Amino acid sequence: SAKSGGGNGVAVFTDAMRAQFELQDDVELNLRSAVSDGSLLLHYQPEVDLRTGRIVALEALVRWQHPTRGLLPPGAFVGVAEATNLAGELGRWVIRTACAQFAQWRQQGLASNVVIRINVSPVQLVSLDFVESIEDTLRSNGIDGSSVCLEITEHVVVQDLARTQLTLRGLKRMGVQIAIDDFGTGYSSLSHLKALPVDAVKIDRGFVQRLGVSTDDLAIVKSIVGLAGSFGLGVVGEGVETAVAARTLVGLGCYRAQGFLIARPLPPEAVETHLAAGRIPLDLELPRV
Ligand code: C2E
Ligand code: MG
Ligand code: MG
Ligand code: MG
């Protein structure tokens, strides 16, 4: 162990690596049953209009209530799912669960003007029956496509542009919105943005977090907001942790935002409280316009 190694750096590294491999084995062994035995759950993170605090969207974020390891974040198992043929199953579970929950909130009158955002992995997007399975899920829950936004990463776009185009066009025919997640971190060129029916970009939280600290990041965020504007795309700031970041986004004309300053990802019951209020008041002391 690290201790018996006397604080030796190599031993510590080895322990960390062993723990990582153990986790990976565990995930491979147990994720399949987790999908069916009720130990996966979704948290929902509100997205607001910073000017009013009004809730405009909810992002579904998957977690795994692991029997011995506690509540695991997606970073601990989504990658393994993708590497072991489980991404399809996991993805279908997420879409079905998020849509069922969203439909229930709609029926309760809690989410009338709110969009549900769902993360989609590259593996799902290239599967031939993806569009049809979305259509089925929307129909069986009575949800219109325009109330749903699927989040994809730039990575997907680059892997198989032709296939991605086909899938996204199928989704657009149902009115489903598409957002590019973690925008600014991938390799997609502007020509990809132009070639795909994308509705919005979400500025990667790495840039947003450093607003007020780094002028480079300010320049990047400013140019993404400008780019979105000239392409007629919506823009959302992710990872808003400070009032400075929020005020800066508003100053740049990026009004939609998500982040710990506003609300953490929350279990359904806790989100309902926010939905019932319709807004999450923020005291940003914005300049009056
Ligand atoms: P993402 O889609 O970019 O989601 C935002 C992540 O940033 C979430 O992490 C959220 O908890 C975190 N976050 C939000 N606000 C803040 C903030 O102010 N500060 C900081 N430091 N973090 C913030 P989470 O839930 O761990 O998810 C990580 C990633 O896992 C997601 O990034 C998404 O790419 C992926 N993911 C989550 N759920 C799913 C899913 O159902 N399917 C797939 N394929 N991927 C998922
Ligand atoms: Mg996302
Ligand atoms: Mg993101
Ligand atoms: Mg991400």
UniProtKB/TrEMBL annotation:
Q: Which organism is it from?
A: Nocardia macrotermitis
Residues in EAL domain copies: 24-279
**Listed name of the protein:** Uncharacterized protein
Q: Which residues of the full protein are shown?
A: 327 to 615 of 621
